[in-house]
Amino acid sequence: MSLDSDLWWAVARSEEVTSQKPLSLDIGDQPVVLWRDNQGIARALEDRCPHRRAPLSLGCIRDNGQIQCGYHGWSYDGETGRLKEIPNMKDQQKFPPIYKANAFAVSEQPGFVRVCLNPKAQAPLNADPKYTYVGTVNVSCSHQEYLNALYDDPGLILSIRGVRFSPYLMSELHEENGMLVMERNCQWHPLHWPSHFVAEFPLTLLTRTHPLTGETQLTLRDDQFHDLLYAVLSPVPSARGVTAVRWRAELGVRHPGVRGAVLRGINPLSVHASVDGSKLRATKPTVSLHGEDLRKVMLETTPATHDQTVAA
Amino acid sequence: MLETADRPVSHDDSSAASSGHSPVALNAINRWVPHNLVMRDSWFPVAHDYSVTGKPVRRAIYSHPIFLWRDNGVVVASEFHPNERIARDKSEFTNTQGRYPVMEHYGVVWIWFGNPLAADPRHLPSLPFLPPKGGLPRHMTATVRFESAAPISLENLIDLTHADFLHADVVGDERSDSETVETFYDSETVTMVRTCVNKSVAPVMKFFSGIKQPTQNVRQVIRIYLRSHCAIAYGRFSPGDDVPLFHPCTPETRDRTRMEMVMNTSNAGLMFRHVMPKAGYKVSRQDSYMTSPQSPRYMRHTDRKDLHSKFDQAGQRYRMAMMELADRQANGDFAYRDNVSADCSDIIGLRKELFRF
Questions:
Q1: Are B58 and A170 inside 8 Å of each other by CB?
Q2: CA nearest B60: which of A174, A295, A159, A193?
Q3: What is the CATH number of domain A9-116?
Q4: Which terms does the record give in the GO molecular function aspect (chain A) (predicted)?
């Protein structure tokens, strides 16, 4: 996967980015440091001081909003990445333009901070709704394998309280407005007939996935088309084959009865911090094969941009 | 007409298998990609009639949504749920109101998937062992799902030699004095007749029909209606019972199959009548055990050809017929060249005296 394109990655939840402590993360093999300046604006630089290559995330955020390297105290402006101060050279306040860290484009919508490695990229249009439930996990699984697991058996990577995912699809993976969309039949857990003998399923899980970033909107619906739960899952490829996953979820219409109450209990959605290798190995790649083919076709016909419509 | 076009493969000198004149070459069928075979302009069985009530239930054909409910007792089939906030376009398979052509027959709800103006009851498959107006007891019906492509499930069905191994505990093992397989076909159907002399008695008959003899003669017929992905599986066991099964394999998606099965055991003894339809639950899981891992291996083209035995001719014919029909449809030819609704009692050897409605 090319990370040089104009892709916007939801690398952090808004509340994770503060002006107290820099946040270290990766987009693929690119280390990124993220913080909030004194205006409250999220900033992103390469996590590497151009002086002696120390991680800027080990430094601190100054009152003026600049990030300061913890090694020799060099300070950088978050918007441009330009060097602003060297503690031992207080008399010199201007430095040549080459004295700078690479700055990345940042866009924040309610809920997520997104970073694009192209600093000139146009910010995505987005309108994330409010989410009550949030989480971050780092999964020792490649970005593509993580998405394949989501396609073939979402139970490998997440759980919805009181809900069991079936292997039967209401709609196979297909392209819809530039997104990879599918709908999976689900049952209430734990009392249910074996899914292979069930005539009607009471629930479906609709997923809409961006073909490049893998950012996915999930909607749990009942059989009367009521949205019971919706969530956004943002897997970002990180260093050493790890996938960093930020997610947000919100409850929708209340389903009547005990089952609806169970769903509305503590943490209706949980995203697993690890993938069970024995289950992953035994999971047959079916939907993910379609996904691979679809992605190829979509990438051939559309440029690699991130028109982030997940929340549309 | 079926009667003249229906002919054994072995006697067909002009068949593709022997001459290569068919648009579908033998090499192609040995490397078929059933997931890519999408049929249309056909009636698909989507629900037992009793499961459609005033509350909408959801079905799909090739991922196209179908919502079924009854309005004053009449079945309505729409591509939109009544509660849905419609944010998508209507498909080409429904009328201006987003409704599919729908009919009830044989106790099953059928959807016409294709050009709605071409919907015609004359294209409904013939199932002469089922009462046209339905009404069989519910214990003779079931819903079963397969994690495989519908053509994979149907190919599994038309190759009955697998049953001697996979379903030996239900239908008996492979031992018999002789076994022959004949295949008949036209442009819309493939029919396989397997005749076994002195075959091991099916355990399910031994225990629930009281068959005392060690062997029985068996005549099994599998007849597949290609477009509808429907099959008849009719077994005549002597000594024993006649067991006709409606075995549809509705492609809800290209890789998931739904079966609204109906087994008419009205003429069998009390025990067998009730137990045999339930065997479908066991047999289907045994089939899934193989077809589920098998199906993904047919999702993409491969240069490695499948190997065959002489008992696979029906399966090969099925592959070829499906590919030829898919080719025709890909070229815009959706016409029926053979009549699928003509009574097929004689073709499947139905003992009509047992099934009068």
A1: yes
A2: A174
A3: 2.102.10.10
A4: 2 iron, 2 sulfur cluster binding; metal ion binding; oxidoreductase activity
